[in-house]
Recover the amino acids of this structure.
């Protein structure tokens, strides 16, 4: 038998080979051995009829939250978002921190069928149920040296860093969190993935003079090519589309300079904002799903906030 396995009659979509059509796919030794309009079933030890189904290369979810249990009800089970959803590689965005990375390696990376890597949280606490506790994410809760060290000693699973540039934080602490996060990324020579769009509620003292439409222009000068501007279609203030309904001019400059943008669908996506951004020529580089415990219907671990 030349082939171990044959997937017959599915619709193969493989943009890298410019393929979209009905093909048979043969696999040998865990690798794709042939993709042809028709392959004889007798040439494989096992043949599976996949007609009516999509046959895709393993998808990569560039924005996952799969630090299950450690991040309260926020983190999902990795294989649910991964191999059971057609996704073979997951990038956890800011779940583990320099403190909790060993647990992430042991209980997620090593334990799951899906390939899992991380953009390490810039914050010591990592991505706990942080939407509700902004004071966990203030500048005093960042340790640049410790976070760089964690990344450098775990280069196989740490592929970048995650931080937030949004109104609730800027109203409390200004740009300091972003400055420290960029410093971490530069020292470790890895990309920084930045959440845009308001996440934390305002402090009791209000916005403290911060105009959300100025956050991008404050942050972009700190960034380097391959850093990622996330949530381009956010419906929350402080994103790519300003309050006049126009894409901030600095976005195009940033993307022309080599910065990237990731959808980060999650709880942020707005069709109206997507239409405005796409019409302005902003086409995201990657399609992170940003699924987590707040935007999916999975039971919360018992007793979480
Ligand atoms: Zn997210």
């Amino acid at each position: 038998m030349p082939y171990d396995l044959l997937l017959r009659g599915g619709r193969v979509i493989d943009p890298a080979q410019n393929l979209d059509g009905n093909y048979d796919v043969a696999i040998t030794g865990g690798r794709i051995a042939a993709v042809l309009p028709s392959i004889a079933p007798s040439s494989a030890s096992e043949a599976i009829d996949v007609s009516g189904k999509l046959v895709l290369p393993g998808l990569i979810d560039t924005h996952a939250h799969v630090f299950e249990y450690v991040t309260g009800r926020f983190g999902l089970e990795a294989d649910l978002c991964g191999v059971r959803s057609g996704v073979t590689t997951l990038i956890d965005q800011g779940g583990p921190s320099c403190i909790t990375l060993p647990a992430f390696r042991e209980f997620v990376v090593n334990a799951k069928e899906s390939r899992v890597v991380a953009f390490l949280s810039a914050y010591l606490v990592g991505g706990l149920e942080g939407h509700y506790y902004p004071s966990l994410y203030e500048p005093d809760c960042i340790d640049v040296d410790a976070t760089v060290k964690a990344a450098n000693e775990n280069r196989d699973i740490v592929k970048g860093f995650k931080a937030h540039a949004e109104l609730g934080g800027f109203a409390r602490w200004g740009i300091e969190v972003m400055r420290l996060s960029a410093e971490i990324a530069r020292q470790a020579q890895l990309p920084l993935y930045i959440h845009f769009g308001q996440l934390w509620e305002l402090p009791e003292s209000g916005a403290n003079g911060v105009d959300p439409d100025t956050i991008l222009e404050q942050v972009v000068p700190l960034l380097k090519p391959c850093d990622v501007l996330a949530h381009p279609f956010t419906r929350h203030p402080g994103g790519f589309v300003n309050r006049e309904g126009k894409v901030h001019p600095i976005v195009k400059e940033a993307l022309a300079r080599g910065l990237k943008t990731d959808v980060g669908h999650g709880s942020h996506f707005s069709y109206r904002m997507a239409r405005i951004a796409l019409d302005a020529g902003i086409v995201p580089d990657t399609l992170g799903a940003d699924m987590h415990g707040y935007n999916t219907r999975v039971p919360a671990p018992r007793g979480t906030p």
Remarks:
- The chain has two domains: 3-55, 59-279.
- The first helix runs from residue 78 to 81.
- The pocket of zinc ion is lined by residues 63, 65, 93, 264, 266, 290 (CB under 6 Å).
